[in-house]
Each structure stands twice: as structure tokens, then as C-alpha cells.
Amino acid sequence: MKNITLAxxxxxxxxxxxxxxxxxxxxxxxxxRLLEQTIKASSSQWLDDxxxxxxxxxVTSDGKKWKREDLYRA
Length: 74
Fold this sequence. Notes:
Layout: H1 10-22, H2 27-43, H3 45-56, H4 68-72
């Protein structure tokens, strides 16, 4: 695992350490988890974008009803 250096103001650092202590983790673990969560959340953005594109299209089924079995024949 690589080490990095961060510049954090004193108040944020103190609050971060207090928060980490209350949750029984190190500040390092807290920052690592927050970074991982942020990256994972943004990587799922493609799904939201895909549904937005689908919703923007004006396509209809022309009243055709689908059955589960029909989907397996596709």
C-alpha cells in the first residue's frame, strides 16, 4: 500500500480524529473508507446516465404485453 501526504486544516483534523476515535478506527482507515465510498459511488454514475438516456427516448411498446417466457426467446 502506498503512503500519501494530505494537507488538512487544524479544525478539520481534530474533528476527523474525534470522529474516528468515536467509531473506533484510525484516521487513516476513516479517510481510506471515505475515499473508497466516494469512488464507488461515482463509478455507478454510468447506471444513472443510462437510465436517463432511456427515459429521454420516446419509445412505446404499442400496447404489446410481454410475458416472462417471451423474454427468454429473445
